[in-house]
Amino acid sequence: MVTIHRAHGLRIIIFTDDHEPAHVHVFGDGQAKVNLIGTDGAPVLVWAEGMKANDLRRAMQIVRDEQAQFLARWREIHG
To answer: Mean pLDDT for the chain?
Structure first.
């Protein structure tokens, strides 16, 4: 697993042995999985467990803001 971003008590990671579609996992007080490209091109929440609504909103904003960088990291790691 590779930590690609830390902010606001959240850690965003990519697992090196993970599968398509390109996505990140967010850990804080709980966890979430976010696909980096949804049907409209924007990131989309796949699931969340135990995250406060405010943390989840913050996580989604980070992924939206850093989408291009996170996709580049996904491609570096997974080819």
So the answer is: 97
Closest among 54, 51, 59, 76 to 24, alpha carbons compared: 59
pLDDT in tens, 6-38: 999 999 999 999 999 999 999 999 999 999 999
Residue-wise burial string across 24-35, b where 16 or more C-beta atoms lie within 10 A, e elsewhere: bbbbbeebbebb
Distance separating alpha carbons of residues 18 and 23, to the nearest angstrom: 9
Q: Is pTM, for the whole model, over 0.90? A: yes
Residue matched to tokens 């609504």: 53
Token digits of residue 72:
């580049």
Residue 9 CA to residue 59 CA, distance in Å, equals: 10
Domain ranges of the chain: 2-78
